TrEMBL record, chain A:
It comes from the Bacteria. Its main location: membrane. Keywords: Cell inner membrane, Cell membrane, Membrane, NAD, NADP, Translocase, Transmembrane, Transmembrane helix. The chain crosses the membrane at residues 6-22, 34-52, 58-82. InterPro entries: NADP_transhyd_a_C. This is proton-translocating NAD(P)(+) transhydrogenase. The transhydrogenation between NADH and NADP is coupled to respiration and ATP hydrolysis and functions as a proton pump across the membrane. It is a multi-pass membrane protein. Residues 6-91 form the NAD(P) transhydrogenase alpha subunit C-terminal domain.
């Protein structure tokens, strides 16, 4: 896709993100932060694509492995810990 | 197995919709659990279709990385004390920033072309690296590995400005001279230092706000990586997190009766009067 179309997506998604959350009760500040942090783990998609075409390059293979592992920690840890936090609120 | 690019893009669109609904759900007590599940479902869909992408040549590294990262992430999430949540989020966010840098670096060494590619790579490396080191400082402060007090020295803001301008200049010069690895490592070094000097002066009580801000930054780093890799899922999701993270930062500041400028620069002034002169 050309640069201008990508820029269009970027700008519109920024506006959507701004409108998305308006009033958040204070008890949900930390879980929301944790949840959006897990979502930013979408870099895992980029990590998989980069690592998958490393080919013979050792440097790129190492960087790719680091990227996939760190992103996977972010995604799995992020969603699980958000779930744990929310489960704790429910019991109260 | 491989599938056509348009099916992958449609799955990315579905994932983006699930992320939007997920963030919306997480902001309300009644729908928070469902929101988190929807976002996780979107992530699962995005990861599975990516594994079917035609550009992936071998799976060894991917499977090893997913296993190692998945197990570590699960263990951390299950073992951590509930009282240590803020520092855990900081740590996970730092890992996310580190992943963005590693992805952008891998792309750089695979070969990038054009001004847009070089600038996006530079921006992804800059924001990702400062998110990584800044989040690690936030983690260390909250875990009491280092003092939670404001740590700083006169002229720190000036140093920050120099580091930022230096990194931006290096990105600009990299456009002119795309193969110059020294410039690339210069950006990494300046950004790493900038992450430290931005977060060290901030007091422990303000740390949750800073973590929210760093979370917003890591979203922007993901978006920049999306421009490098020509990937809509990264561009859309990264900017969503970047923008909603910034709004959450503002909401958290308001709840603490502080302004964002106050959190970022206020604690410095308490340290000593000579810093005020800056």
């Amino acid at each position: 896709m050309d640069f201008v179309s990508q820029l269009t997506l970027f700008v519109l998604a920024i506006f959507l993100g701004v409108e998305l959350i308006t009033k958040v009760p204070p008890t949900l500040h930390t879980p929301l932060m944790s949840g959006t942090n897990a979502i930013s783990g979408i870099i895992l998609v980029g990590a998989l694509l980069a690592a998958g075409r490393a080919g013979d390059s050792l440097l790129v293979s190492v960087l790719g492995f680091i990227a996939v592992a760190l992103a996977a920690i972010n995604v799995v840890g992020g969603f699980m810990v958000t779930n744990r936090m929310l489960a704790m609120f429910k019991r109260k | 197995m491989q599938i056509a690019q348009h099916w992958i893009d449609i799955a990315y669109l579905a994932a983006a919709v699930l992320f939007v609904l997920g963030i919306k759900g997480l902001a309300k007590p009644k729908t928070a659990v469902r929101g988190n599940q929807m976002a996780a479902l979107g992530m699962g869909a995005a990861v599975v279709v990516t594994l079917l992408h035609h550009s992936i040549l071998s799976y060894q590294i991917l499977i090893a990385g997913l296993l190692v990262g998945g197990v570590i992430g699960a263990v951390i999430a299950l073992k951590v004390q509930m009282t240590s949540m803020p520092q855990l989020i900081a740590l996970l966010n730092g890992f996310g920033g580190g992943a963005s840098v590693a992805v952008a670096s891998a792309e750089y060494f695979l070969g990038i072309s054009g001004a847009v590619g070089v600038i996006s790579t530079g921006v992804a490396v800059l924001i990702g690296t400062l998110t990584l080191t800044g989040s690690l400082v936030a983690f260390a402060k909250l875990q009491e590995l280092i003092s939670g007090q404001s740590i700083g020295f006169p002229g720190m803001k000036f140093l920050n400005l120099i580091l930022l301008l230096g990194a931006l200049a290096a990105i600009g010069y990299l456009v002119v001279e795309p193969g110059n690895d020294l410039l690339f490592w210069g950006i990494v070094g300046a950004a790493a230092l900038l992450g430290l000097t931005l977060v060290l002066p901030i007091g422990g009580a303000d740390m949750p706000v800073v973590i929210a801000l760093l979370n917003s930054y890591s979203g922007l780093a993901v978006s920049a990586a999306g421009f490098v890799m020509d990937n809509n899922a990264l561009i859309i999701t990264g900017s969503l997190v970047g923008a909603s993270g910034l709004i959450l930062t503002q909401i958290m500041c308001k709840a603490m009766n502080r302004s964002l400028a106050n959190v970022l620069f206020g604690s410095m002034a308490e340290g000593g009067t000579e810093i005020d002169a800056d």
